[in-house]
Design brief:
Rossmann fold, 2 domains, Arc Repressor Mutant, subunit A, elongated, five-stranded parallel beta sheet
Length: 206
């Protein structure tokens, strides 16, 4: 997978030096002199991070970040700040940036921040795969089995499920055993985890 860095900074010297360093580290780098130029060229990329200067003429980094959010951007954003811009950087992080670096930044700090961004991309991809797998498993269930699972998600006992669905407790046990087998779940906790992962309720804490 080619890892791409979008570097948005109005300082030509920084664009030149940072892009040289990042290319030498093995990244593909695309540079932009201002926010509007970047937004005009914007296209979602599942294997890219954004390095965004917060102080730029015309459209500052926070405005660019807001525009990206409105477009549904999922690419990790690392903001670059000058001395004394910490409050702006904190606001950028509240708006979703994963990290900020104060200029002049160390090469090691920059590379670590970027790798952190790509690690987050990998984590999100893994979560998406888990969700897709969970959804696929749920499609194996019959309508009644899905109803029983929904009741289990709500924390109901077998007796309460039987009363709610107007079936016998024994029938509930049969449906419960069948859905556990179809979900490949060896415990109620595992079955609930699948249900929550597929967004049939709120996500369980990890």
């Amino acid at each position: 997978m080619t890892k791409t860095i979008f570097l948005v900074d109005d300082d030509e010297a920084i664009r030149h030096s940072a892009s040289f360093m990042l290319r030498h580290a093995g990244y593909t780098v695309k540079t932009f002199p201002d926010g509007m130029t970047f937004l005009d060229a914007y296209a979602p990329n599942d294997s890219a991070c954004i390095l965004l200067d917060v102080r730029m003429p015309g459209m500052d980094g926070l405005a660019v970040q807001q525009a990206l959010s409105e477009r549904g951007n999922k690419m990790p954003i690392i903001v670059l700040t000058g001395h004394g811009d910490v409050s702006v950087a904190v606001q950028a992080m509240k708006n979703g940036a994963i990290e900020f670096l104060e200029k002049p930044y160390e090469k090691k700090a920059l590379l670590e921040a970027i790798e952190n961004g790509f690690n987050r991309i990998a984590d999100h991809a893994a979560e998406a795969d888990q969700r897709s797998e969970a959804v696929a498993k749920l499609t194996r269930l019959t309508g009644r089995e899905s109803e029983v699972l929904d009741c289990l998600v709500d924390g109901m006992t077998n007796k309460a499920i039987a009363e709610t669905l107007s079936i016998s407790p024994r029938t509930v046990e049969i449906h419960r055993a069948n859905l556990m087998e179809k979900l490949e779940a060896d415990s109620l906790s595992a079955a609930l985890r699948i249900a929550f992962t597929a967004d049939r309720g709120r996500e369980l804490p990890r």
